[in-house]
Amino acid sequence: MEESHLSKLNRKKSLAPEVEKGCNFGCKDRMRPADILVPNWSLSRPAAFDLKVINPLNSDSILEASMIPGSTAEKGERNKHLKNDGPCNERGWSCIPLVVEVYGGWGQEAVSMFAHLSKLLSLRQRQSRSAALNELYCHLSVVLMRQYAQALMAHAAGAR
Questions:
Q1: What is the Cα–Cα distance from 19 to 16, expressed in whole angstroms?
Q2: What's the pTM value of the predicted model, to 2 decimals?
Q3: What is the pLDDT of residues 23-79, one digit of tens each?
């Protein structure tokens, strides 16, 4: 998913997001704890949002995913915490993984973050919280579908 779409939503709420933070200058391996850093997220503590799209049909997760909805996203969140909690804590940031399964199910931490963001959105745009949350999910689902289609087209072009 493009980080710019979530950045734009956060910018609307005056949260001053920054894209791809935490990597030292000259970092080439894209190892960083934040795809999006929101400096004034909650209780004056910055939040490092780390995005991941995950497929529940991978051989290592398909059995569990077939029995427990959302288990693949939960596993993705745990992996993001294992990788990023240390670097985030060193910087004084909260690590918030935003994991979505390719079929559209979001991880619980993303769902909680969207609920918080929709509250801010509803206040700023003078609309109900449920309308703001619906708008957020609709926007993100379109972005995900568009990105997934682009990835499939790129994969198909490379296979020729």
A1: 10
A2: 0.76
A3: 543 444 455 678 888 888 877 789 999 989 999 998 888 999 889 999 999 999 999
